[in-house]
């Protein structure tokens, strides 16, 4: 393997930043900070415009927030060849890597499913969240990680073609509209698994098409640790991202871009943005060496599973309860809305500080 650019210890700073920023935005959602940006009093303002981009599109289209899960699944793919190359360097066999990959995929699927059972306090069968879907995508990406670039790309395209075919042609009585919310194959599949079309149109089947994000991440990771020059790597990343964007947006009149059911055009468009984002991070941080402030976000990405689960199961709400009386006493003069926004910022800072404290203590929770 070629020597990686970035930190002296071999870490890729651009990947640390990319992962950390993505996780920072994910945990920010649990503070409810973004909900304030779309309040009626901000309608028609720049704040509302930004706020709308920090929420999912209702159905068809693409907002910035619709890219966060694809970014995360892509980043996991980028990290796979980096991690596995280190394991092989220390003597792990392919069998060892396989056992590790299967265990990790199963635990992600289990944890993702478990999160859905917490709120109702009963067993439900829902697998729409990022952890559950990543469990499936991870093992699919691992199956082809040692194959050629052509086979990996071909496999990802086959997954998208299967998705397109099922959405358009799978004969299910009562589910006849391929891209209408609640009347399509993904809605039927939800009913099949959980007994309800749960989640406001979010599809469990998404794990299949969005596995392409993780596979493309694997290819990007293999490129970054390969023997090409930094300039060549950058050119390939930008070219691949541009091609994916052209396919995604170019075919959108035929197949609409819909995140909730991960249409093929959505996967291409969001995958293209994921590649472009990695290329920009790589260019700015690892090539141009603009690295000030990278650590602020990187520490969040060094414990992604822990901080996501902590925030998800009530950690953010607990922090909010602890700081609520102090926030009201100190910032009540800003008004109800002002004090709520400040409190959300405090919660976000404390979530970040937990990650920073764990980084300083060298506590890294992985599966």
UniProtKB/TrEMBL annotation:
Domain of life: Bacteria
Upper taxonomic lineage: Bacteria, Pseudomonadati, Bacteroidota, Flavobacteriia, Flavobacteriales
GO MF term (any one): acyltransferase activity
PANTHER family: LD22376P
The protein's name in its UniProt record: Predicted acyltransferase
Gene source species: Pricia antarctica
Keyword set, alphabetical order: Acyltransferase, Transferase
